[in-house]
Design brief:
The complex is a heterodimer of chains A (324) and B (241).
Chain A: E1 2-11, E2 14-24, E3 29-33, H1 40-47, E4 55-60, E5 63-64, H2 69-75, E6 76-79, H3 91-101, H4 106-119, H5 135-147, E7 153-157, H6 165-178, E8 183-188, H7 191-197, E9 200-205, E10 208-211, H8 218-222, E11 225-232, H9 235-244, E12 248-255, E13 260-267, H10 272-281, E14 285-290, H11 296-303, E15 313-315
Helix pairs in contact in A: 3-4, 3-5
Chain B: H1 2-17, H2 19-41, H3 48-72, H4 76-81, H5 84-88, H6 94-114, H7 118-126, H8 131-158, H9 162-185, H10 190-197, H11 205-208, H12 214-237
Helix pairs in contact in B: 1-2, 1-6, 2-3, 3-6, 3-7, 3-8, 3-9, 6-8, 6-12, 8-9, 8-12, 9-10
The chains are: A alpha/beta (324), B mainly alpha (241).
Chain lengths: 324, 241
């Protein structure tokens, strides 16, 4: 279990973390989401006791990360943004070293390393040098070293960064499987990764925690309803019509071939019947109207006060987004 | 000590699994051989003990340089490659990390130093020296090397990369060497303190001539301990920034 209370960290006069408070229960998988410079790495470094907080308190399984740093580290598995590997060692020797340096005896290490190699699909490359591995295998090896000592909490910093789509899917599965044995906290700026793997998300912006909604509650957090609408007809006219409707707060537009236009709307309250009626009465052929799962990027950008940088996006108030 | 042993084993293996270890080993042997041939053997007739003293004199220079090169990577390289997080996030004490790193570098230096032993043996072809002088000389080299590696360990702990680590360690080493000169141009008690604190002229030459003095052994041992303690404190302090 991770408990953080009023955690604050300054770099000189610069405030990097501002009285952050949250709790992560045993067996939860929680994403830490934030733009670059939001304070994600600072948070993770404090939790792993690599850095001291300026104020506030953080505990892992009830142990203070400052007062009981060694005991905390024994309960933690940590994968930084760059996997901490020794390139000249083979995968097997490296994992043996990682296990033993975390206190496992040699025989127990042998057994556990075998299990972890199986779990992370590293068995085929166990005699390869770490420096010869592909990026995907290095990330797997990074996760393997983080879990080899059976920590109760696993902290992963951008574990899917730089992976190709196939590797990303594999990594998601691997991270999901960690939830069975470990409490997982991982940071990412690849927003879909968080939604695929997490129960809950901590949204960090300029050092402050903006919210910690469950994935299923995201729409409610916004108080908005995301709706996809597809029509056949002239897109500009349909946008003008939708923008005028009461309850429509945001309109994103995307043109398709065959005269089709798709709109992504944010509604408050749920005015789907009025939207459908207005389009049909306006002479548009309504091809689709449904509620997709709320896109995390939209949530994040709205909560942090940014606007989506997608081209062609128009808002109900007529303002156009500018690329960030 | 189990953790220290683990780190020593890993570090020593790293020296021999990478080209760096062999490059350092061969360079030191080559330089020692050339210096021994040019200045100790090839500079006219000399007493055997003088030849051996000259060998230890030149070897002390290569030992100090080799110590800095060996130690520059100890923590700075790990910080550069990101592997430092493995040790720093493990339940290790800071002194275990520093002791493991230091001992591995010192053992590697000892292997290099012992590999030069064929040179003093060559003196027996046309002369004779005592085993005591050889043992004392090598003990001096190992003690001097230990202090230089401790200085390098501190530099490597403080520096963000290996280049800065080398510059920092070299600066500290040179400072300790020129303290002798400071002692020669100042008045007591500063001159007495400076001469005593200086790394080389007062404490190393007795070893070259075969004299093992407890005071000199203690000097190198305490200087090594001091710099290692500073390295431990520097590693602990990194959590603050």
């Amino acid at each position: 279990m991770i408990a953080v209370e009023n955690l604050t960290r300054y770099y000189g006069a610069k405030l990097a973390l501002d009285r952050v408070t949250f709790q992560i229960d045993r067996g939860e998988a929680v994403g830490l989401l934030g733009l670059n410079g939001a304070g994600k790495s600072t948070m993770l470094r404090i939790l792993t006791s690599l850095m001291l907080p300026s104020a506030g308190r953080a505990t892992i399984d009830g142990l203070d990360v400052v007062q009981n740093a060694r005991a905390v580290r024994a309960r933690l598995g940590y994968l930084p943004d760059v996997p901490p590997l020794y390139g000249e060692m083979t995968v097997h020797h490296f994992l043996m070293f990682a296990a033993q340096v975390r206190g496992l005896e040699e025989k127990e290490s042998e057994r556990r390393v075998g299990e972890v190699e199986e779990m992370t699909a590293l068995s085929d490359v166990r005699e390869e040098r770490a420096s010869h591995l592909s990026h995907g295998y290095r990330q797997r090896l990074g996760i393997a070293q983080a879990i080899v000592h059976r920590p109760s909490v696993v902290i992963l910093d951008e574990p899917t960064s730089g992976l190709d789509p196939a590797q990303t899917v594999e990594m998601r599965g691997l991270i999901r499987s960690l939830r069975e044995e470990h409490t997982v906290l991982f940071s990412s700026h690849l927003l879909p990764e968080v939604s695929h793997v997490c129960d809950r998300v901590l949204i960090l912006h300029r050092g402050a925690l903006l919210g910690q909604p469950k994935m299923s509650d995201l729409a409610a957090v916004l108080g908005m309803h995301a709706v996809l609408v597809r029509v056949r007809g002239e897109g500009g006219a349909a946008r003008a019509l939708l923008s005028k409707l009461e309850g429509v707060h945001e309109v994103e537009i995307e043109q398709f071939g065959d005269g089709q236009t798709e709109f992504r709307l944010l509604l408050k309250p749920d005015v789907r019947p009025q939207v459908a009626r207005a389009l049909i009465e306006g002479g548009f052929e309504l091809l689709r109207l449904d509620r997709p799962e709320l896109d995390l990027e939209t949530v994040f950008l709205r909560l942090t006060g940014h606007k989506a940088p997608a081209s062609g996006t128009k808002h109900a108030n007529g303002d156009a987004d500018r690329p960030a | 000590m189990r953790m220290v042993t683990l780190i020593v084993r890993r570090e020593l293996a790293a020296y021999f699994r990478s080209p760096l270890g062999f490059i350092i080993l061969s360079t030191v042997l080559l330089l020692d051989g050339l210096l021994f041939n040019a200045y100790a053997l090839g500079a006219g007739e000399r007493r055997s003990s003088s030849v051996l003293m000259l060998f230890f004199f030149y070897s002390s220079g290569t030992t100090m340089v080799a110590s800095l090169v060996i130690s520059m990577r100890l923590l700075a390289e790990e910080r550069q490659t990101g592997s430092a997080a493995l040790l720093l996030a493990a339940p290790l004490r800071e002194w275990e990390i520093i002791a493991g790193k230091f001992l591995s570098a010192w053992i590697f230096l000892a292997i290099i130093t012992v590999a030069t032993v064929y040179m003093p043996m060559l003196i027996f072809v046309n002369g004779s020296v005592t085993a005591g002088q050889i043992v004392a000389g090598y003990l001096g080299l190992l003690l001097l090397g230990a202090t230089a590696i401790a200085i390098g360990t501190l530099g490597s702990t403080l520096a963000p990369n290996q280049i800065v680590a080398t510059l920092l360690s070299s600066g500290m080493l040179v400072l300790l060497l020129v303290l002798w000169w400071v002692g020669s141009v100042t008045a007591p008690p500063l001159s007495t303190i400076s001469v005593y604190a200086a790394l080389y002229p007062k404490h190393f030459p007795p070893f070259m001539s075969g004299v093992i003095s407890t005071a000199n052994v203690l000097y190198y041992a305490s200087a090594t301990y001091l710099f290692l303690q500073l390295a431990v404190r520097a590693l602990e302090a990194r959590r603050w920034y």
